[in-house]
Amino acid sequence: MLGKLTGFDDTIVAVATAPGLGAIAVIRLSGPNTYTICNSLFPSKDLLQQASHTLHFGNLVSNGHIIDEVVLSLYKGPRSYTGEDVIEISCHGSPYIQQQIIDATVKAGARLAKPGEFTQRAFLNGKLDLTQAESVADLIASNSAASHQTAMQQMRGGFSKELHALREQLITFSALIELELDFSQEDVEFADRTGLYTLISNATRVVKHLIDSFRMGNVIKNGVNTAIVGKPNAGKSTLLNTLLNENRAIVSDIAGTTRDTIEEVLNIDGILFRLIDTAGIRESLDTIESIGVQKTMEKIREAGVVVYLFDVNELTETDIRNQVAAFETQNVNYLLVGNKTDVTGEAVIRAKFSAIPEILFISAKNHAHIQELKDALVHKVLAGDVNTEDTIITNARHHAALQEVLKSLLDAKQGMDNGLPGDLLALDIRLCLHYLGEITGEVTNEDRLDYIFSKFCIGK
Questions:
Q1: Which tens digit of pLDDT belongs to each residue from 320-340?
Q2: DSSP at 332
Q3: Distance CA 243, CA 68 (A)
Q4: Residues 98-121: pLDDT tens digits?
Q5: pTM for the full model?
Q6: Are 134 and 122 in contact (CB under 8 A)?
Q7: Are residues 21 and 102 in the same domain?
Q8: Per the domain annotation, does 43 fall within a domain?
């Protein structure tokens, strides 16, 4: 196992709770000398004689001075998060106290943990596979109901189970094909080609579904850039303020008030929309305003969704059709929103633009139909309902590996169609197994692991 190669035979320590002042802080130690180190600082009782999964209250003492009254939580390996001996020290949340405890444990023989090293040890000791370990970081970073649910689903092994089942079936067929090569002189087939066709067909369907889920997963994990664009005085800043329920952007009747982009985050049904209020699109001799318009065009190109907001009393049906044509030429994912229906009346406006049924009419000033706009944004991004109980790919590394898996599966199918010999067919299946193993960590190297876990927070 890779864990044997890394030489993780020392004891590490780190603060497991958020940095800064708080009521309680937790300091975690893991490694072979965990109990010996803590025993030297905890004179109340002999920790080496205590049972696993027990709590112990007493003073933590260093050089004859009491650092703090603490509670120690004991976890003896392999029944712990890392699979090693672990002790968690719950102390008062003073940063000074935390540092004193860290210094005392280091002097007693521990070393400071690297980012993600606790979870890395859990992976190396077989407590988690790599996809589950990575989901720990996603769970910590989750900032919406959808991202939390997706991370929990992966941490419980939903993604891993699908991959393991697929990998086991491919391994069986690979072994049979390899066996055929040993008996190549006798012209026998141990691997049922019809069954392999079925397996590859089913595997291709599963992998394509996972690859397709990445678009949704990326939205759930990172949110979606949503640019609010339109001509000056269309009400873009008013709409931003209305969506946020606060006066974030300056609102004025003077055209060109917004000179620079303003960005805020809005959570709608568990999806994070990074709203960008942009400068009004028009030709201007004002240098600053012109720069703002250039930034608006950049935001349109970068946005996952563009909300084109227009004053229904100013523009015509022809104006909107011209704008739609421009968006479609640029492959922009847009939503047409007609604002200021309160000025003329909604019925009159709907009749005016009846030939363009996809327009959503609102009054940002009066908060009219804002919920419909929010619903339309969610639907535009997800193209339907999101079911976070399904396996959803949120990790770019997994997505890239799955694309290689799909390529190998298609190559294997094409090879069977062309009657390729078993040795070449086995090569495609081995490639497929390799990339599946890269996702779960069954095939990896220490440099890759160091990179993955370096993105974790210290203490986890």
A1: 999 889 888 888 888 999 999
A2: -
A3: 48
A4: 999 999 999 999 999 998 899 889
A5: 0.60
A6: no
A7: yes
A8: yes
